[in-house]
Amino acid sequence: MKRLILLAIIISFLFAACNNNQHFTKIYIDKDKSFLNDFTILGDYVIYDCTLTIINNSKTSEISIEAIDLKEYKHNLLKSPTLSSKEHFLVNSGENVLHVKLYGLHGTENTKFDRLLPNKISIIIVYA
Predict the structure, then answer these.
(1) Which of 6, 52, 53, 92 allows an S-S link to 30, with CB 3.0 to 4.6 Å?
(2) What percent of the chain has pLDDT over 90?
């Protein structure tokens, strides 16, 4: 009986901990409202000019953006699949539309395989 009560207490504690989202920042990209405007090649860099809609369900935060574009890496537009913004952005609570430039190392090709955003875009929280 004591084991059953202890198990119930542990399950209740875990459930409460999982549902307590105060310690987790909820900032994400609304992919339906985000898009690639264009890309350019400047010296050793490929620059993706993007419009990203960021939803912030938390307090005002400073963020940076990183991305992985495996498709363009495989098609040799990029020397490495990693792209990153060179600046930080302040996102207020709610919807934020950002003009973001993502920089990656230029490979051997000069054309982009498609007109899509990178397959993985990550938000790095610099300050919350």
Answers:
(1) 53
(2) 78
CA torsion sign, 64 to 115 to 31 to 91? positive
- The CATH number assigned to the domain holding 109 equals 2.60.40
**Is 63 domain-assigned?**
yes
pLDDT for residue 29 is more than 60: yes
pTM of the complete model: 0.79
- Residue 23 — pLDDT band, cuts 50, 70, 90? very low
b/e per residue, 15-34, with b = 16+ CB within 10 A?
A: eeeeeeeeeeeebebeeeeb
DSSP β-bridge partners for residue 83 = 67
Rounded Cα–Cα distance for residues 124 and 110 (Å)? 29
The range of the structural domain enclosing residue 123 comes to: 25-127
pLDDT in tens, 82-99: 999 999 999 999 999 999
Whether 112 is in a domain gets the answer yes
Q: How many domains does the chain have?
A: 1
- From 64, 68, 67, select the one nearest 87 (Cα to Cα): 64
Q: Is the separation of the CB atoms in 48 and 79 below 8 Å?
A: no
Residue 98 domain-assigned (yes or no): yes
